[in-house]
């Protein structure tokens, strides 16, 4: 692969002139800039972003602030981010907010102090002010998985409303009428939008939604178990559960297991997020899956677009498609056993 020396020789200029053309750190005549770019194109030269950042005295570190390091969903997201960061010659700092806004703000201040080149964040809340610390320091930010309510932060998301609507419509199509929902904090777009998709599915089927069947948890396993117990203890318990993330689905299945309830014979279940054990024949969980690796890699690519062209002023929102993976846990009771 051609290097900067090869380009300088081909263009008949110095190495520092080639560097100035690609860094934009000093003026170069149009004629020389054209000569350098033509030489680079002929040699298929790729200027190193990391080398460019170093010369421009900028960090070559990207900060990734996720909301729950114990949730396996985020390991695939982190992998997607890291692969892009590494291929760009940068390094990654990983931080975990534990769904705690105070801890999130502490890490925002640490990442600012470390003068990272850019940030990718899974925000703990849709309405929050701590990201302005990055804007004040002109550090580019991309939100992933969840959006923040401002007019400038890019976001890379999955269509949560559509995923939830399709998951609940599938239960209704299989004959379930009294569907309970366990979603995450409605202060997050994932929690709020999955509840919205649940309500849309009921409305489209002409089912009057019963607020007693709606519960908001913490996206953690224990809250899934506790809220499933509450729904099961209702005078009129649901005949199916729609649970809006992997850990809470695990908790809800535990609650059913502790009561000796069979799935789907006694209670149908649809989860959100793929889980390694979901396809096990003993569980065979129907779930709304997310393209998690692609979420991470797309967010990182968007961030590097901003690093390469700091003068991008338009906010971009990229929405990826969820996919319903149908298995045995949502089977119609009238369907023959497999
Ligand atoms: O389990 C992880 C998923 O649930 C993510 O979408 C996260 O935002 C939570 O909603």
From TrEMBL:
Q: Which residues form the signal peptide?
A: none
Keyword annotations from UniProtKB, A to Z: DNA-binding, Repressor, Transcription, Transcription regulation
Listed CDD domains: HTH_LacI, PBP1_EndR-like
InterPro entries in the cross-refs: Cro/C1-type_HTH (IPR001387), HTH_LacI (IPR000843), LacI/GalR-like_sensor (IPR046335), Lambda_DNA-bd_dom_sf (IPR010982), Peripla_BP_I (IPR028082)
**Which residue numbers delimit the HTH cro/C1-type domain?**
5-39
Can you name this protein? LacI family transcriptional regulator
Organism, as annotated: Ktedonosporobacter rubrisoli
Lineage top rank: taxon: Bacteria
Q: Where is the HTH lacI-type domain?
A: 2-56
Entry GO MF terms: DNA-binding transcription factor activity; transcription cis-regulatory region binding
Task: Please give the Pfam families that the UniProt record associates with this protein.
Answer: LacI, Peripla_BP_3
């Amino acid at each position: 692969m051609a290097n900067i020396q090869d380009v300088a020789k081909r263009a008949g200029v110095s190495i520092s002139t080639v560097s100035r053309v690609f860094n934009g750190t000093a003026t170069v005549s149009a004629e020389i800039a054209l000569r350098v770019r033509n030489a680079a194109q002929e040699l298929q030269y790729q200027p190193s972003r990391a080398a460019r950042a170093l010369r421009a005295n900028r960090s070559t570190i990207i900060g990734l602030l996720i909301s729950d390091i114990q949730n396996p969903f985020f390991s695939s997201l982190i992998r997607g981010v890291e692969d892009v960061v590494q291929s760009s010659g940068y390094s990654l700092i990983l931080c975990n907010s534990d769904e705690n806004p105070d801890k999130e703000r502490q890490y925002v201040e640490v990442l600012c102090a470390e003068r990272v080149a850019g940030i990718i964040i899974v925000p703990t809340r849709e309405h929050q002010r701590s990201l302005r610390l990055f804007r004040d320091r002109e550090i580019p930010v991309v939100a992933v998985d969840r959006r923040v309510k401002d007019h400038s932060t890019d976001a890379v998301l999955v269509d949560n409303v559509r995923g939830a609507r399709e998951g609940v419509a599938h239960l209704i199509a299989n004959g379930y009428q009294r569907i309970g929902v366990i979603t995450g904090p409605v202060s997050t777009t994932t929690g709020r939008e999955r509840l919205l998709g649940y309500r849309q599915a009921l409305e489209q089927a002409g089912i009057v939604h019963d607020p007693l069947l709606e519960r908001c948890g913490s996206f953690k396993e224990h809250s899934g178990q506790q809220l499933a117990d509450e729904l099961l203890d209702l005078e009129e318990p649901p005949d199916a559960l729609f649970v809006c993330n992997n850990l809470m689905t695990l908790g809800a299945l535990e609650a059913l297991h502790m009561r000796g309830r069979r799935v789907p014979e006694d209670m149908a279940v649809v989860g959100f997020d793929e889980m390694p054990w979901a396809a096990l024949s003993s569980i065979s969980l129907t779930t709304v899956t997310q393209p998690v690796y692609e979420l991470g890699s797309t967010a990182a690519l968007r961030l590097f677009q901003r690093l390469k062209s700091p003068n991008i002023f338009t906010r971009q929102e990229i929405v990826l498609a969820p996919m319903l993976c149908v298995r045995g846990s949502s089977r119609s009771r009238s369907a023959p056993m497999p």
